[in-house]
Amino acid sequence: MSKILVIGDSCTDIFRYGEVTRLAPEAPVPVIKPVKEKSNPGMAGNVVANLKALGVKVDFITNKTEIRKVRYVCSKYNHLLLRVDENDKCERIKWTDEEDSSTPFDAVIISDYCKGFLEEEDIEIISKSFECPVFLDTKKILGKWAYNVDFVKINSLEYKNNKKVLDNDPILNNKIIVTRGPSGCDYNGKNYPTTNVPVKDISGAGDTFLSGLVTEYVKTKNISRAIKFAQECTTIVIQKSGVSTV
Asked: Strand, coil or helix: what is 169?
C-alpha cells in the first residue's frame, strides 16, 4: 500500500440544503428553509479523504484552528445561493515541531489554500526535505521557492494569474499541470481531453484530481497515465452533490 504525506490547510465543508419558494419582501433575495445538512472535511482534508477512498495510507499535517465553509443550496435545483466562510485564517505551520522528514513516503502533497498555514519559505523548506516526488497545489503566485517541487497543479484562473511569471521561467513552466474543467488538462504542451458528463457540483473537484494524480503516479511513475486517471476520478465526483470522494 502506498504511503503519502499531505501537508496543508483544511476546513469543514458544510452544505445546508433547503426549499426556496419565494423572494424576501425586504429585498430581491431568495428565502431558504433549510431541511438537510451535510458536512465533510474540505480543502487539504478533502485531498486526504479522496486518497483514503483510493486505498492509500495517509499521514496528515494540518491546522488546529477550525475553518468552516457553509454553503446554502436550493435542493430542488442544486443551485448554490450563498457561501459563508467562517474563521478564514489559521495558525502557521511549525515544520520542525510537526514532522520527521526522514519518515519514508512514496510522495508528498502540499495543498496550499492560502489560509495562513503555509508561507512560501515553508513550502520551499518542506519540498527540500524529501527525496520522494513532491506535488504542489497552491493559490500563491509562483516563484523560485517552488523550484524543488516536482509537479505543480493549478486551475485555469490560477494559470492566468501566474502567466507572466511562467512565460519567463522555463523551470516552473515545465512543472505545471493546468486543469481546465470541460476543456481538459494541459501539461508540457499537450492537452488531455476529458469526458463530458452531466455536472452536478464542482466543489472539491480539484482536490479529487490531485489525489488521483498522485495515487496513479506513485504506482506507475508515468505522469500521462496519472493525468488520465485523475480526470477519470474527477468525472465521477462532479456528478455528485456537495464535496464528494471518488
From this structure: coil
**What CATH number does residue 113 fall under?**
3.40.1190.20
The upper half-sphere exposure of residue 212, i.e. CA atoms within 13 Å in the direction of its Cβ, equals 22
Q: 126 lies in a domain?
A: yes
Domain extent, residue 215, equals: 3-9+42-65+89-237
Which residues are registered as beta bridge partners of 178? 154, 186
Chain segment 102-134, per-residue pLDDT in tens: 668 999 999 999 999 999 999 999 999 999 999
The answer to whether residue 174 is domain-embedded is yes
For the chain, count helices (H), then strands (E). Answer: 7, 12
Spatial CA neighbour of 135 closest among 62, 1, 226, 35: 226
Distance from chain centroid for Cα 233: 13
Q: At what angle do helices 205-220 and 44-53 cross, to 10 degrees?
A: 50
Report the number of distinct structural domains present in the chain: 1
181: left (phi over 0), alpha (psi -120 to 50) or beta: left
For the entire predicted model, the pTM comes to: 0.90
